[in-house]
Amino acid sequence: MADVAASVLARFKNKAKDSGISYLTNFESRATIDVDFLLRDYPNSMEQVKELIGKIIDTPTGNDYIQLTAKSFEEILPQKKYHGISTQIIGKIKNVRVPFKVDIGVGDIIVPGAEQRKINMQLPDFESSVIKTYSLESTIAEKLDAILQRFELTGRMKDFYDIFYLSKVFDFKGEELQTAIFQTLHRRGTTYGKDSFKRVVDLAKNEDMQKRWKYFLKTVKNELLEFSVVIAQIQIFLEPVFEAMVNEKEWRQKWKSDRSMWINTNDNIEKDDNN
User: Fold this and answer.
1) What is the pTM of this model?
2) In terms of residue numbers, what domain contains 218?
3) Do 102 and 144 share a domain, yes or no?
């Protein structure tokens, strides 16, 4: 009988060699992979979430050589009315173990709504999954919320990178992005004011932030991307939306990722190209 697990590991290893990205994480190291889920219409008590995770892990998939084990559970923001749950899952194929963290949020708002996305697999003969995901607008809103909560104390450099990346790849409607940011900040009780975004922009000059950024770049294989460039892009992308929100005005422009600029909804794009 063919050793399917060994075959899969060998293919992962070959792909990792071709791409230059490691295919496993040392079990003794801190988990560097995480995924966020939103829990709805289900109790968020520790015991019931443990039971739910157990049922998910035990669901037959046809890939019996993959073993999943939930190792630890803890509450996220226990002081909040709707606290979440975090757990570390250990994935194992033969003697290779990969830890990853699962954060389960409760009570978050998704604007304009959950989106169905196709998740491509690393190996071509595995079936891709179609799942409901956070909207890109709410993804950006939550990352901005995390930045506004800690400013120069944050260690989450991925939040800056992700906002930068999304602004470079996707177009957005200003009113939807503004609504997502407003509702997320209010739902989470995050305080902000007219000077809040200036504090974000000033992070580009913070030496500690620059050091954290250089360390972070090793994980994304883009060591030439300057933190100041990322902050400048975030400023162009989000500052007009944030200022409109603070001043209680509606931001109705559209973000064009290929130009990194906001345009009026009535603008003719082809005409603008000829000017």
Assistant:
1) 0.80
2) 136-273
3) no
